[in-house]
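Query form — protein Linalool synthase

QUESTION: What is the three-dimensional structure of this chain?
INPUT:
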Amino acid sequence: MQRSSWLHPKFVASLHNSSSRNPLHFRKQQTTKPYHYNDHQKSLCLRHTDKLQEVRRIVDETRGEKETLFLIDSLQKLCVDYHFEEEIEAKMHSLYEKQLKIIDGEPNNIVEVSLLFRLLRQAQYPISTDVFYRFLDSSGEFMASLANEMEGLISLFEASNLNFGGELMLYRANEFSRIHLKPYRTSLDTDLAVHIKQILENPYHLTLQRFKARQILDNNTSKSYYNFNIVELGKMDFTMIQSLHQKELKEVTRWWKESGLDQELVFARVQPLKWFIWPMTCLPNPKFSKYRIVLSKVIAFVYLLDDIFDVEGSLDELYLFTQAIERWDHSSMNSLPDYMRACFKVLQDTINEIAQIVVEEHGWNPIEYLKKSWIQLSKAFLVEAKWLIEDEVPTIDDYMKTSTISCGVPLVLVHIYFLLGHGATGDLLENLPNLISCPTRILRLWDDLGSAKDEEQKGRDGSLLASLRKENPHWSSQVARGKVMQMIEEAWEELNKESFSPSASMFSRDFVIGCLNTARMVRVMYNYNEEHKLPMLKEYINLLSKQV
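ANSWER: The structure tokens for Linalool synthase are given below.
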């Protein structure tokens, strides 16, 4: 049974003296209904604050390089690091200055060196793959003795997934660690086998962080590696944020019912949970509650417009609909069906709501950029509708140019960009930064690889595979799919470089996380099985909804 959210900032402030260190320091939120708190909820909130102070003491007292590495890794993997951003930043700077002491330390410290490499790279510090040279034999391969060090293999494997592209050392590290970790999957220790299986199938960097945290909390073997107090804080944090998300989802569902669109768009996919999962994943920090709710509406309209163009509208209607969106004028909808007019009206209200949030919180109005993003999306949908009606297979370049807009990722990330307080640049929508274009390509390519469509979608989409086969008729289906997988891997490497290079500092850390989490979510949302179902999505929902 879902519990109502009890994380309202007024309640927290009444229990504790609010400060910048308050674990539940939220942005101002609009509240439409009063919050009611039972004794259990009050007790958990107070116990959470006490446990937070215990962990803060541990953080403050941790001094040694090795202990500091494991501490930061624990806080991040259990998703409680957002409580200690300043402390972690200071400790990461210290580790960077002392990196040679760690790298040149004990000869068998593969765990520490791999962890140092991953943490520094994630924190946008420059660090070379040369740190792994000491673990190579005379032939330039990783030493055979490392095959017996399970923890070292895990640490090396996790580090190898942060490849910037063309880093041969990390390619070798990935292959070596993967090969030698596989035998542990058949271990007589069931928990250990599950632990290794989860690591290989869902590497930390490529997987949703809260998904991994929940796996850790559920697996006795992996949980035993972490400090008890940090684990307990992780459990409490998970429960409290879970309750907050349930409240947010109720707000999204309420908005949908009150919009009246459920009566107008009877042909469309109505999936509030799927709409909400995207912003819930992209912006995990509790303080972004209001943003998650309004972004769920944005994502809803991406799905709804997709269904209008792909399922319901005639080509003539779609031309007029696109023109009306381009003019951003509701009166120009008069000659169109009622459902189109109703949809556009609620879309306008939603975008105006977002623009007003940005005005109130950041001092300027991004409405022209937001409107332009919806114009681009509708034009891309129209091009795809023409392709499908005319049974045309576009060129690879034309397909990617259009489909990377129609997937909706640029539009959503642009809305996040402004909500997080970034200023406008004149050519933002014409020349998307790689931080946006990379997760866009990853989603587009994964979706095409799945080929099986959403089980509730009635229309049909084009596919890069079809364009590849048309331009390369000698390719087999397997070769074409291999090419797409290669493109996904290259996009991930480019995203790594954009996210973790010092140049990424021009974007807020929350925006970088949002772009990374969008790419991470793709494997969950588009990993179809042979029955056209989404088992990873189902597991993700189950893990995040059940009690810890």
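ADDITIONAL NOTE: The chain has two domains: 9-232, 260-545.
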